[in-house]
Every structure is written in C-alpha cells, then in structure tokens.
Amino acid sequence: MNYDDALRNCIFRFVSGSHAYGTERPDSDMDYRGVFIAPLDKAFELFQSSFVGSGTIEQQLKSAIGSIENGLYDKAIEHVKTAMSPEYGDLNLSVGTVHKAGEDEELQELRKFFKLAAESNPNIIEFLWVDRLISVSSKVWEKIRANRGMFLSKKARFTFSGYAHAQLKRIETHRGYLLSPPDHKPTRQEFGLPEQTEIAKENQNAILSLPDKWIQADARDYVRREKQYQAALEKWNDYKKWENERNPARKAMEARWGYDIKHATHLVRLSRMGEEILRDGVVNVYRPDREELRGILRGEWTYDRLIEHATAIDGRLDDLYAKSPLRNKPDHKGISELYKEICQEHYGIKL
Questions:
Q1: Is position 73 within any domain?
Q2: How many domains does the chain have?
Q3: DSSP string, 209-248
Q4: pTM score, two decimals?
Q5: What is the pLDDT of residue 89?
Q6: Per residue in 329-348, pLDDT tens?
Q7: Burial environment of residue 290 by CB neighbours within 10 A (0 to 12, 13 to 18, 19 or more)
C-alpha cells in the first residue's frame, strides 16, 4: 500500500513537530502526521509494505554502504540484517505506518494508531489533542476525539519520562564525544585477546553466569576482556556513526553550546507534558511554555541547569503519579468497542 492510497483513506492529518508545539523557527521543516483507515481489500492482503519510498530497507542499505566505507564492518552487517528483516521490509503482515517518499510525512493505520495511543506513546497520543494546523479531518475523527479520555492513563508517567530520559542519554553521550572523543579504534591486542575469539559469543554470557567453582578463572577473565573489548568497539562505532551522520547545522550548534540544545528542548517539553497529563488529564500540544522552550533553542539554558531539571523529573512524576485521578490503564474494552463500531460503519459490515 503506498502513501497516495493511504492519503485517499485519511481521516486526520496535521502539521506536527515544532509547528504543532509553537516552537518552530524560520528554517523549521513542515512535518505531517495523520491517521487512515485501510480499505477493506487491503486489510485482507497477506503480504504488503508498511514502509514506502523512503522506507527502512533503503535507509539501512545506505547505512550499510556508509559503514563499509568507514571500515565499520560489524555495523554494516547489522544494517544488512535489518534490511532483510520482514519487520522492516516489503513482507510486513499488516499495514502499519506508511511514509511519503522523500518527505517527512507519515500516516498511521487506525488499528496501529489505537494500540500506540492506548500505550500513551508520546508521539501518537498527542494526535488526540491537536486543534491547530489541521489539513484533514472527518466525522470518524471527531468521534475518536470525543472519546479520547479512554486512551489516557497513568502509563503516561513512564512513557513520557522514558522518552525524556532517552533525550538525556543522547545529550550526555554526545557531550562526552565533544569533550573527550575516542582517539582510535580499539584492537583486540589492547585487551590481551587473540585475533579471533576462542569462545563463541552465545557461550560468553553463560560462562559469566555459572558459579565460580564450575569455570576456570582464566576462562572467566578471558570472557570479561572480550566483553570489555566489545563495549569499547561499540562505543567507537557509535562515535564514528555520530561523527559521520550528523548534519552541519547540528554540529555547529553542539560546538557552540557544548550540548545538543534541540534534544534539550524535547527533554523539557516531554517531561512537562507528562506532568500535565498526570495532574490535569490533558495533553497540551500547543505549548503554554513555548517561549521558554524557544529560549532553550537559543541557548539560554546552561548544561548544568538542564541536568538539574532532568534530575528532578522522576521525583515530581512519582508524586503526581500517586495523586493522579487518571485510571491506571487505558479503557481497553471501550477502545475495542469504539474500533469495532468505526469498522462496522466505515466498511458497512456486521462484526
């Protein structure tokens, strides 16, 4: 199923990202997101693509070529394996996410959208509270939006903080690259290892998990050194990937401010949205703090201030979680009934 087919069956579409949050800059791209209902015949196709045009196969193979050119052969193998996986390729068993070739546009099929929204996925549940920059809407979407409370739950405490911590991890990792970049690719000799491993990778964890009396000390030490080497190699490969793939504007930004202020903006926004959901039961997409977020993008927050904010997140969220009036889990039964009702009306069938 291609993007044009999905767009013809679209029930909701809007401009997402910084424009939706009110934090856009003059050079900000227009990203589109939305929801569609797969035509009935497509719902019963066995093999079909979920990724079209700019999909994962193409991206992974390009990344594999780049890794080979940089001597990162282990990474190249990973990219090729990913490209061959049905999960990412042309043999996906259901229509899930459809992308527009060459553009930052994607549509979620209704079934997948409901599942992700019920999990309080931060990138998805916000659809239900968007009220600006909407290019496509429908009576079906109005019905879904009218029932959006069924999707909201205390799960937001963990999903939004989880996404925020992922941003923090990227910031800390990249700052480490800036301040203390690895200066060479590690070798097996540095760790006292032979050119080829003597213990199969699948056996290494087993050796470390067994009681000391069952394994010779030198074998255990050998595996530990293998682990240390693999960790150092992974760090080097990640560093080279970051160095080779980041765009010039992001590179200049990190060099100027000493950390990634764009990731920092996402971190602050996500953590505050999590707080608002738990406290008020709403998802504030168009940000009431958008001017402060713009300030972060201008470099007005120091790295230390950001870390202080991030450190306090869990404590605040734990307190709000305990006091929140939200249900612990989404209304799965109600969401299922809503999906069934929409399908019956849309397809004209009795389920």
A1: no
A2: 2
A3: HS-GGGS-HHHHHHHHHHHHHHHHHHHHHHHHHHHHHS-H
A4: 0.77
A5: 43
A6: 999 999 999 999 999 999 88
A7: middle
Reading across the β-sheet that carries 97-99, which strands appear in turn? 97-99, 105-109, 31-36, 10-16, 134-136
* Domain of 107, in residue numbers: 3-50+92-152+330-347
* Same-domain status, 253 and 199: yes
Q: Are 70 and 56 contacting, i.e. CB atoms less than 8 angstroms apart? A: no
Q: Are residues 339 and 237 in the same domain?
A: no
The residue among 277, 274, 257 whose CA lies nearest residue 309 is 274
- Token pair in block for residue 8: 């013809």
Percentage of the chain beyond pLDDT 70 is 85
pLDDT in tens, 192-218: 888 887 666 665 565 555 556 556 666
Q: Is residue 87 part of a domain?
A: no
Element containing residue 11 per DSSP (H, E):
strand 10-16
pLDDT tens-digit readout, 21-38? 999 988 888 999 999 998
CA distance 271 to 279: 12
Please give the span between the terminal C-alpha atoms of the chain, in angstroms, as a whole number. Answer: 24
Pair type for strands 31-36 and 105-109: parallel
Residues 277 and 317: their CA atoms lie apart, in Å, by 10
Whether 307 contacts 164, CB under 8 Å: no
Identify whether residues 144 and 161 lie together within a single domain.
no
